[in-house]
Amino acid sequence: MTRVGLMVTCINDALFPDTGKAVVTLLRRLGVDVEFPAAQTCCGQPMVNTGYFAEAVPLVRNHLEAFAGCDAIIAPSGSCAGSVRHQHGLVAERSGDPGLVRAVEGAPPVYELTEYLVDVLGVTDVGAYFPHRVTYHPTCHSLRMLGVGDRPTRLLRAVRGLTLLDLPGAAECCGFGGTFAMKNSETSIAMGNDKARHVRGTGAEVLVAGDNSCLMHVGGLLSRQRSGVRVMHLAEILAQTEPVIEGPGRAADERSVGTAEVAR
């Protein structure tokens, strides 16, 4: 049986655990044997992005050890999936360790969640139900580094009850960019405000994306503007199913979502 490892990412582990839980719920519903290697840590992207390649070497080694034995790795983040696929090789080459280079080259393939669903499992209808108006923001790394294309929107369009609204300027960066948001805060906020304005203009109830880092940035601005727009990771929407009603007005499936949960 295929053994799939969940690379939950630092931000989800620390701040958005429901996203990781949603991925497991979704994949198991689709018949995937998914595990969570507890030894995983940061993928090393913050170090690489700021030029500290040597400091990223222990993290690359840990990643290889934590996911050894997996046939594939799934990440609910275009940013971190892109880091493993494109930066780990650079870190290994700069380390001067041929053994590390070989280990990275032979590591299990890493998929962003929508890539795995559409390309590997071959599904776009995952049996989800989410009766709300939604707009989708394609995050920079998923769009440009991984090239996920329309996979996320194909999945969203297949969700029963969901109305997908076009987001003006969708391909424009939201302004987060990891350390960019701290080093260039004024520019970051200006870019985020542009994105928030476009989101509000759609009339959507929910802004969805495949990276919680970007949702955290834009969601914070939307909250301060009292927009009433909620942000949700794509996995959390895809994990929702239609309520199973047992008796008068009683929903048996507590994982199902309704208007009350979106308004929370």
List keywords for this structure.
264 residues; alpha/beta; Rossmann fold; 2 domains; 4-stranded parallel beta sheet; 8 strands; 49% helix; Cys_rich_dom; (Fe-S)-binding protein
Describe the structure.
The protein folds into 2 domains: 117 residues, Rossmann fold, CATH 3.40.50; 130 residues, Rossmann fold (3-Layer(aba) Sandwich). The chain contains 14 helices and 8 strands. It has 264 residues and is α/β, with parallel strands linked by helices. InterPro entries: Cys_rich_dom. It comes from Pseudonocardia nematodicida. It holds the Pfam family CCG. This is (Fe-S)-binding protein.
Helix-strand layout with pairing:
Blueprint: E1 4-6, H1 10-14, H2 17-29, E2 34-35, H3 45-49, H4 53-66, E3 72-75, H5 78-95, H6 98-105, E4 110-112, H7 113-120, E5 133-136, H8 140-146, H9 151-157, E6 163-165, H10 180-183, H11 185-202, E7 206-209, H12 212-224, E8 230-233, H13 234-238, H14 259-262
Parallel strand pairs: 1-2, 1-3, 3-4, 5-6, 5-7, 7-8
Helix pairs in contact: 4-5, 5-6, 5-8, 11-12
Give a concise summary.
This is (Fe-S)-binding protein. With 264 residues, the protein is α/β, with parallel strands linked by helices.
Q: Assign the CATH class of the largest domain.
A: Alpha Beta
Query: Can you summarize the main beta sheet?
Result: 4 strands, parallel
Straight-line distance between termini = 39 Å
Say what the CATH topology of the largest domain is.
Rossmann fold
Side-by-side strand order of the widest sheet: 2-1-3-4
SS field, number of helical segments = 14
Task: Compute the CA-based radius of gyration.
Answer: 19 Å
Helix share bin:
40-55%
- Overall number of strands: 8
Shape: globular
- Specify the structural class: alpha/beta
Average pLDDT taken over every residue: 91
Residue runs with pLDDT of under 50 for 5 or more positions: 253-264
Query: How many separate structural domains?
Result: 2
Helices and strands, in N-to-C order? Answer: EHHEHHEHHEHEHHEHHEHEHH
CATH architecture of the largest domain: 3-Layer(aba) Sandwich
Q: Approximately how much beta-strand content do the residues carry? A: 5-15%
